[in-house]
Design brief:
The protein is an alpha+beta fold and 381 residues long. The chain has 13 helices and ten strands. The protein has helices spanning 62-65, 81-88, 92-114, 121-131, 145-161, 170-190, 202-216, 240-259, 288-296, 302-317, 321-324, 362-371, 374-380; strands at residues 5-10, 20-27, 31-33, 47-49, 52-60, 66-71, 74-79, 333-336, 341-349, 354-359. It has a three-stranded antiparallel β-sheet. Strands 8-9-10 form a three-stranded antiparallel β-sheet, with no helix packed on it. A two-stranded antiparallel ribbon has the order 3-4. Helix 6 (170-190) packs across helix 7 (202-216). This is Phage integrase SAM-like domain-containing protein.
Length: 381
């Protein structure tokens, strides 16, 4: 929204005393695109600017308001501050009323600036009339965050289906789905409905993540009908990095809600609203030659043998530690496709919350041949 510009003008119809009603036209830079207009030179030719029009509830004769100037083939009455002020000396109420409107316009504009909302002409006019006590402020029912999330997920999937430019990927959408599950679990556990304004309280903000983490630890049992029967749990709860990921995602949702008019006063730039990430662990990478050495070299040392097998399996299956721990529950089988088939496993990846099928390449099959099954490996690994 640009800084409001106010222009006073007279109604064309006088009363029986020759007085015209004074209107205020407020330009806030809001426009709508009229696609029926022809683009003659610039794209802005299709912009249809919508000023806010409001009555001052005052009347005045034209000669006390301004003077006529020639514009093209016609005479137009233009507001002249000098002429108006001279008349207002004997009618101070008139000047006070116009000043009150000017001040109200400034206050309403500052309110929208503070809330980072770019209002439509109707939104600005509604707020201005409330400020001028011309209408009562409507009690707006706050929208639950979960309802907002559901609508966003639905909209994002529709954009993806239509292949819109800038549409979120399915994996990105799944992160919002995971966040929605957190809200579902929290609301079931606390028997409450979470609103945007709840997060304005920092105590509630951190309590939300405390409860969500307790649910993941299985310290609080929740029966969520929207989630699979076998819900993933961890005795250690969420890692700091995982929580920070969801905190960042929540901030995005709160920011979007704020832009759409929801009651969010929380300072999302406050560093105290995130956890401090642990120091980065030493990163070790193995190149192709080093992995090849592990495959070719044999050892009778039990510990080195286990380490070798783990290294080969993790490298060729692309699994993290948490995912490797699932292997003892799985049994490989043949998967048939239209063009080819392969011997592999189907596993749920913890980080992406997705099911994948992984082919077992020759080095991994060799380890299985030595150990018979993943169940046997569980004892060693």
């Amino acid at each position: 929204m640009k800084h409001p510009i106010i222009r006073f003008s007279l109604d064309s119809k006088p009363n029986k005393y020759g007085e015209h009603q004074i209107f205020a036209f407020i330009s806030i830079g809001y426009f709508e695109v009229d696609y029926t207009k022809e683009v003659k030179k610039y794209k802005s030719d299709t912009k249809d600017y919508k000023p806010v029009k409001i009555s001052t509830r005052c009347r005045i004769k034209p000669e006390h308001f301004g003077k006529y100037v020639v514009k093209g083939n016609r005479k137009v009455l233009v507001y002249d501050e000098k002429i108006f002020n001279q008349y207002a000396r004997t009618n101070r109420f008139l000047k006070t009323r116009l000043q009150k409107i000017t001040n109200a316009v400034s206050d309403v504009a500052n309110q929208f600036y503070a809330e980072e909302i770019n209002p439509t002409d109707k939104q600005f006019k509604d707020a201005l009339e409330i400020k001028l006590d011309r209408r009562e402020k409507e009690v707006i029912k706050e929208r639950p965050v979960l309802e907002f999330l559901y609508d966003k997920i639905k909209s994002d999937r529709k954009d993806l289906e239509m292949k819109k430019k800038g549409a979120l990927t399915e994996n990105h959408i799944k992160t919002y789905v995971s966040l929605s599950r957190m809200f579902e679990n929290y609301q079931i556990a606390t028997k409450s409905i979470v609103k945007f304004s709840d997060f304005n309280d920092k105590a509630f903000y951190w309590d939300f993540f405390r409860v969500v983490d307790a649910i993941y630890r299985d310290e609080i049992q929740v029966d969520n009908p929207n989630q699979p029967k076998k819900q993933r749990k961890s005795p250690t709860g969420y890692g700091v990095k995982s929580l920070n990921k969801y905190i960042k995602l929540l901030h995005r949702v709160l920011s979007l809600g704020k832009k759409s008019g929801e009651n969010v006063t929380l300072d999302l730039n406050d560093e105290g609203l995130s956890l401090e990430n642990p120091p980065a662990e030493k990163e070790i990478y193995l190149n192709e030659e080093e992995i090849k050495l592990a495959i070719e070299n044999r050892t009778n040392n039990v510990e080195f043998k286990i380490a070798r097998q783990y290294l080969i399996m993790a490298s060729f299956m692309g699994l993290r530690i948490d995912d490797m721990e699932q292997l003892h529950e799985l049994s490989p089988k043949y998967y048939k496709g239209k063009r080819s088939s392969f011997y592999g496993i189907q596993i749920s990846i913890g980080k992406t919350k997705s099911e994948v099928m992984i082919p077992l390449l020759k080095p991994v099959r060799g380890i299985l041949k030595e150990n018979i099954s993943f169940q046997y490996l569980r004892k060693e690994l």
